[in-house]
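Field log, afternoon session.

UNIT: design team B
ACTIVITY: writing a sequence onto a fixed backbone
BACKBONE:
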């Protein structure tokens, strides 16, 4: 049989899991199910699924096919499928994995939207304010100079700020374009969570979401009685949170059974919220249930902190923007009010 071409990019974990889960649920042969699902996928994923189906059809065991670099299957998904085949619970484990991925996506999108809304208000308010400073204030300045008015300190300060904005209008335009690009990236979900994590006050929700992801990924491998170093390594490589991924990889390399998992976690600097869970590592499948329970708790914490963040950020943004626009308008009309009073 002619060898299928190598996929242009690694096979997406969610796409592969959905294909396998639907195949298991339908009770059809693996190769047949993969080919059927591939017809509904984009080109890159389709090539990967068809290649995997052809490998299975050629007589290669599923476990060997999953480990083939040619299929570029994500390490965590390969470990999960292997554990599911060993325990006979592949369908259940894939369904749980997909549920966790959907939940993580929902929480991440909620955190992103809660921060993007006030940022968009600030961005467009700043754009309106800069346009007024660059184009509107100079016209009022000419009127004030023609009448020889004595300007209030607020108006004089705004005029000086307008002259500075006119002088720096090219750098300001570049800065606004870059800021707009960042906002678009935030809408795509590529910037918000890493940026939130670096904030002490705003990052609580993002960190709780990453802890939930870690517990959800580790739990099924623990319940399937996979070795903890291998389970931690596979889990770490699947994490979307870069800092936690680094710590989890260090933990998988550090933990060799000669010390408790909790002590190893303390040594590599794992977050305290996760390290204290490892004291139950000796409880076997019960440890997996504990991880699942804490994954749900961390998800609730992330959603709660998201709502709190939105509740106090939005009023602050509205007040700040309102004060700035109000002062700008007031500074322009104060001299006109004085002129009107003097003429009357």
């Amino acid at each position: 049989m002619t060898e299928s071409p190598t996929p242009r990019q690694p096979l997406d974990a969610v796409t592969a899991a959905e294909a396998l889960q639907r195949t298991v649920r339908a009770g059809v042969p693996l190769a047949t199910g993969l080919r059927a699902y591939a017809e509904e996928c984009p080109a890159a994923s389709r090539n990967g699924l068809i290649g995997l189906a052809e490998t299975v059809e050629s007589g290669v065991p599923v476990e060997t096919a999953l480990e083939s670099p040619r299929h570029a299957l994500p390490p965590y998904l390969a470990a999960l499928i292997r554990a599911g085949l060993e325990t006979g619970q592949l369908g259940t484990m894939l369904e749980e994995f997909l549920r966790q991925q959907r939940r993580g996506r929902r929480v991440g999108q909620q955190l992103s939207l809660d921060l993007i809304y006030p940022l968009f208000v600030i961005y467009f308010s700043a754009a309106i304010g800069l346009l007024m400073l660059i184009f509107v204030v100079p016209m009022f300045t000419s009127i004030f100079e023609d009448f020889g008015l004595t300007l209030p300190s607020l108006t004089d300060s705004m005029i000086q700020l307008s002259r500075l904005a006119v002088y720096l209008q090219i750098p300001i335009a570049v800065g606004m374009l870059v800021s707009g690009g960042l906002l678009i990236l935030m809408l795509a979900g590529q910037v918000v969570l890493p940026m939130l994590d670096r904030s002490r006050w705003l990052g609580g929700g993002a960190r709780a979401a990453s802890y939930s992801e870690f517990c959800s990924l580790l739990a099924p491998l623990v319940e399937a009685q996979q070795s903890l170093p291998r389970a931690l390594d596979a889990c770490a490589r699947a994490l979307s949170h870069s800092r936690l991924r680094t710590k989890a990889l260090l933990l998988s390399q550090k933990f060799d059974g000669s010390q408790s998992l909790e002590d190893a976690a303390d040594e590599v600097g794992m977050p305290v919220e996760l390290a204290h869970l490892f004291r139950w590592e000796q409880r076997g499948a019960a440890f997996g249930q504990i991880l699942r329970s804490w994954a749900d708790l961390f998800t609730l914490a992330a959603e709660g902190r998201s709502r709190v963040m939105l509740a106090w950020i939005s009023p602050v943004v509205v007040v700040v923007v309102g004060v700035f626009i109000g002062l700008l308008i007031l500074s322009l009309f104060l001299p006109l009010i004085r002129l009107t009073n003097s003429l009357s």
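LOG NOTE: The chain has two domains: 1-73, 74-344.
NEXT ACTIVITY: expression trials, pending approval
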